[in-house]
Amino acid sequence: MNLNAKRLLEINTVLLLTFICVFSLLLPAYAENETEAQVNNGTLTLSMDEVVRLTIRNNSNVATKYLQRVTEKFDLEKAEAKFEPVINIDGSFNAEAFQRNMRISDNGTQTPASKWDAGAKASITQKIPTGGTLSFVWDNNYSENSDGTLSYDGDSAVSRSKTYTREASSKWRIELTQPLLKGAGIDYNMASIRLARITDKRNILSLRDNLSQLINSGLNYYFTFKQAKENLEIQQQALERSERLLEVNQFKQSMGRMSASDVVQAEADVASGRLSLEEARNSLDKARRDLLNHLEMDPNLEIEPIDDEIRDVEPDYEQCMQVALKNNQTYMDKVFAVTESNINAMMAENEREWQLDLKGGYEETQTQKNSYSASTSDDELSAGVELSAPINLWGDDQLERKKKLLTAEVNKRKAKLELKRAKTNLQTEVANAVRDVRMRWKMIRLAQKNTELKALQLENENTKLMVGRTTNFEVVSYQNQLVQAQLAETSKQISYVQALLILDQLLGTTMETWHVEFKHNDKQLEEDLNNKIRPLVWTWW
């Protein structure tokens, strides 16, 4: 096998990566070969696609994020239920029985007595977007009492009697309260829901970003493993060259054409190569275990990576910025902060006003005492206004009032400045990332050319050594230079694919790049948790 064929074989074993952005205008599509990870005889065959899918499927941090998402989604549901009716039913029951002993002079009696009462109350409260509250209350009560008494009527007359009372009442009331100043208005009353929705959007972006970071971590572990594997192969090839050189030198020494001192250089190079080979094996085993730990798989598995074709990606800055301004989490967080500060400022201005409420209501009560008495009925219609007008001229209350307004205005301006700064930072980061991708591709080509030249230099030096036109030291030096060139080429490959990952993370398109469906929540997990707690929600004993 000639040198060019050997070199081609070495290049084909270098770490390869395919990268695209979700937007086809930015990056070329990468091969969509969705192969499933297979384990044969304790060896796990892995591609980049499978690293991504195994990360999403196996890594427990993914499950943790989706568990947290269940409570976050419920917080939004709770906030959006603000204008849904609140219905409560309260019931009460009390029963007592006792024996009463009574005595007057020498007369006495034992009388059983009892009392019991029951009540049921239903209430419906409905908040409306204008700030008003509509409420309905229906209160029902029933009680019975039985008792015995002794009374002294004269010189010796003592009478015994039993009493029995019963009372039932039913009352219902409907009432409307509508603020006219403080607490009034659709904007003010919808503010809490708008803030909750913004928080939920921020949580969704955070979930997407966390999943993207897990994917990138898995890919980086994979790249580190492939780099360690390539490094091991390079060190093995270097050791083989050193051993062949040592054999040649020992043969020349036996023929009297080389001194023993010259052979020492080759022997030292072999010893150094064996040390480097052991270090490479240790690094490979560590990288293998780190990758399997991230994938949460059997740490004793061996890994066989699949080589992929590398491609030149030339992202366009303007198009990248358009994507980043819509997807970048850090920038979107500042956009949300501006909206939140405007809402909070509006609420602070509303809450400084006096409390002026318009009230109206109707109430009806029906009562019946004992079976022989007639029932009574009362009704009441009411309407009016209620004003609470604190006038804080000086002191803590006035300063606190001023502080709230001042803080709200400061936060508004601060949020706008931070948004402007965030956009500038994003422009710089995207520009650097785009330039870095282009530059590292050029460095790959330069590193490949350097490796080819170093290999050619070594071949020429070996030819010179055979005819005695160079020293053993020079050959060993060129061997070391070739090893360093090969390692540098592998490092440039890793740097290139990492630059692509960084750009993808900035654009917020990692999930789309790897064709991973981004779910805002895990519906099956949510259903399982709700089924678990549902019996506890609807039972009270």
TrEMBL record:
Gene3D superfamilies named among the record's database cross-references: Outer membrane efflux proteins (OEP)
UniProt feature coiled coil, ranges: 405-466
Transmembrane segments: none
Keywords: Cell outer membrane, Coiled coil, Membrane, Transmembrane, Transmembrane beta strand, Transport
UniProt subcellular location: Cell outer membrane
Record flagged with keyword Protein biosynthesis: no
InterPro entries: OMP_efflux, TolC-like
One GO MF term attached to the UniProt entry: porin activity
Domain of life from the UniProt record: Bacteria
Main location: membrane
One protein family per Pfam: OEP
GO CC terms, sorted: cell outer membrane; efflux pump complex
Similarity annotation: Belongs to the outer membrane factor (OMF) (TC 1.B.17) family.
UniProt name for this protein: Outer membrane efflux protein
